[in-house]
Amino acid sequence: MGPVVVLVLVLSCLLLFSIWRQNSGRRKLPPGPTPFPIIGNILQVDIKDITKSLTKFSEVYGPVFTLYLGMKPTVVLHGYEAVKEALIDQGEEFSGRGRFPLAEKTSRNLGIVFSNGHTWREMRRFSLMTLRNFGMGKRSIEERVQEEAHCLVEELRKTKGSPCDPTFILGCAPCNVICSIVFQNRFDYKDQDFLNLMEKFNENVKILSSPWMQIYNLFPDLIDYIPGSHKTALKNIAYIKNYILKTIKDHEESLDVNNPRDLIDCFLIKMKQEQKNLKEPSEFTTEGLTIAALDLFGAGTETTSTTLRYSLLLLMKHPHVTAKVKEEIDHVIGRHRSPCMQDRSQMPYTDAVMHEIQRYIDLLPLSLLHAVTRDVKFRDYIIPKGTNILTSLTSVLHDPKEFPNPDKFDPGHFLDKSGNFKKSDYFMPFSTGKRICVGEGLARMELFLFLTTILQNFNLKSLMDPQDLNTTPVLNGFISVPPSYQLSFIPV
């Protein structure tokens, strides 16, 4: 038997196995478009605008449907009711993290974002407790954000009102907040170590959002053997992990258990306590700390900086909104003290604007993949343990029943008839349920303090007529980013 015949037989067997597997697996799953063998429904999905494709599928198959991204099924939740029923009402069953092949290589079920089971619960509990209480040294998290807001304003003053692209400066500020929380100290914006870390993170965000990574996630075992940007991403992660590890070793040498300075110190103290009290292996290890710190940087830097960048663009586009926010800043805060989180409760319009920015920009249209932790009966379907779950946050944040004219930027979506702030259950930019973003409170604090401090000190001047500004998001595989723009920061 010749090699060509053997190859044809092997490929035929793979094809038949793929067809059998897909057909047998689809019997009790939600309906969906018929998948092709091996590649699934990939050719039926517009990679450039996945959200639009999901909306079209939901119109045919309903709010819960199945897509095959490769040979494995992914159940899609579209619309508030389906998302709430799964992530909140059946939160425990839907609390798993879906497969991310690149993350599995680097995280190995450690850290906060990509871990599962007992490890995830322990790391999440520790991170939430540390971020909420933060009895570290003399400075609270709010004070650290205020300090960075002041440094941000000083950096913007250096532009002297000249037109500039704010991307780099707005990237430095949230990254420095994470540095302050994890490493104790912030960096100067020109510090070489800081610039190197920023470069690695920024490059990885671009790589992770590229079509190549979507292909890699479908066929990781095959693509691992060929060159590509996934290799660059792994090198960048290794660089960041080595930097974090070096910092951990420095902290070990200067640790004072009675006076923790940052998250690393708190983790090291927890490690010592676990070593004394438990005989079983602990989740609190040096490698676990390294991955947890990496997760905080990855989740808390690019997302916040992109939101800030989008915020300034929307504020320029809608000068009447900006004028009302500045009026509220003058009335509640004034010009002679820094904004603080207590101010937010007295600033309903500004609070509504912050919420509307996050709703409108729809930063993470698909969130991160979930997975079911056991065989689950959901509505009239059976979803097998380990099945990936894709939640369309766009379908919730842009639901016309909750937000009239959802594609229009309107702070009124979060205001009642009396001008008071109005909460909405549909506000899910950080997802919802047990996997809701650990850094939600920090991100909302940064957004409020950075933007109010900027508007307290500057007028935003567009280089063109505000009506001509383009605010349409540049969609990619991961984050919705604003189009590039320039502006001038005119001191008040």
Automatic annotation (TrEMBL):
Keywords: Endoplasmic reticulum, Heme, Iron, Membrane, Metal-binding, Microsome, Monooxygenase, Oxidoreductase, Signal. One of its GO terms (cellular component) is endoplasmic reticulum membrane. Residues 1-25 form the signal peptide. It is an enzyme of class 1 (oxidoreductase). It is a peripheral membrane protein. Its EC number is 1.14.14.1. It is found in: Endoplasmic reticulum membrane; Microsome membrane. One of its GO terms (molecular function) is iron ion binding. Heme binds at C437. InterPro entries: Cyt_P450 (IPR001128), Cyt_P450_CS (IPR017972), Cyt_P450_E_grp-I (IPR002401), Cyt_P450_sf (IPR036396), Cytochrome_P450_fam2 (IPR050182). Its cofactor is heme. GO terms for biological process: organic acid metabolic process; xenobiotic metabolic process. Its main location: endoplasmic reticulum. Belongs to the cytochrome P450 family. PANTHER family: CYTOCHROME P450 2C9, CYTOCHROME P450 508A4-RELATED. This is unspecific monooxygenase. It comes from Dipodomys ordii (Ord's kangaroo rat).
